[in-house]
Amino acid sequence: xxxxxxxxxxxxxxxxxxxxxxxxxxxxxxxxxxxxxxxxxxxxxxxxxxxxxxxxxxxxxxxxxxxxxxxxxxxxxxxxxxxxxxxxxxxxxxxxxxxxxxxxxxxxxxxxxxxxxxxxxxxxxxxxxxxxxxxxxxxxxxxxxxxxxxxxxxxxxxxxxxxxxxxxxxxxxxxxxxxxxxxxxxxxxxxxxxxxxxxxxxxxxxxxxxxxxxxxxxxxxxxxxxxxxxxxxxxxxxxxxxxxxxxxxxxxxxxxxxxxxxxxxxxxxxxxxxxxxxxxxxxxxxxxxxxxxxxxxxxxxxxxxxxxxxxxxxxxxxxxxxxxxxxxxxxxxxxxxxxxxxxxxxxx
Length: 348
Hints:
By secondary structure, this protein is mainly alpha-helical. The chain folds into two domains: about 10-105, DNA polymerase, domain 1 (Orthogonal Bundle); about 125-295, CATH 1.10.443. It has helices spanning about 10-25, 30-45, 60-70, 75-95, 125-135, 145-155, 160-165, 205-215, 240-250, 285-295, 300-310, 315-320, 325-335, and strands at about 170, 175-180, 195-200, 230, 235. The strands form two sheets. A three-stranded antiparallel β-sheet has the order 1-2-3. It has a two-stranded antiparallel ribbon with strand order 4-5. Helix 1 packs antiparallel against helix 2, helix 6 (about 145-155) runs antiparallel to helix 8 and helix 6 packs across helix 10 (about 285-295). The radius of gyration is 24 Å and the shape is elongated.
């Protein structure tokens, strides 16, 4: 092989080289997402006995897309996977591992209108009832599940950001929390240092957090010697543990009869290993979606919500804000209609 020739790389080798290249400029969460998406292609290529990326053709790419469609993936998932595949091949074409024309042979399917995201979210009215129930019930007030739901709802933060909070990041007297990017001790933010921000909290939320810290928080440290806000007896709560707590905190049987005909006292979905199987429980992401929509309905300017939840305006409008056009008119735009006056007060 001369200096001008690129080596034959297997699909797995090419995938690893690409991810190593992107690690320099991308967040860890993004790299993990690309690795997961490309995993499907690598495994498929190995089953097809494709030993060199140089052997790929447009036919193979079309066969792979057909293969993925046969697994009933959603339109948005297939769109993301094929776009990542195309980006990967563009990198490989740039370093002469695959032909320059190959990336253009990847078909990235469009997403039908209305299917860009899952509309399921914690409805603001349901959130109000859940939080009022937790606040008024002595058995639930200030528990870890209650404190977590309050913080998720009033910050709209991602679960990874919530997991990374330390006690020192919560400022009770001034009523705010600060999200810090600390990758060296396993609590990065999705957007790295660009995700760092302070988010204000209502007084009633701080009262819940104060009670949780005083009466229910496990007094443990994580492996880095830090004091996490949300803990287990082993240290900092994992993202999976936080998800389970969220599932349990959003079950409607906390305040109403079970919509699925079960009795709360005997329902298996109250167990931590079964909580996610409750048809009405919601993940942290659905709480985030509902929170962002609610914050916009509270007439917080889009720019303020963007800063609070660390998401661009475009992402908020496309993926998180689930208000209907009529709701946007009635709750957000109609109050400004009075400004549209051809004869402002005071003019002749």
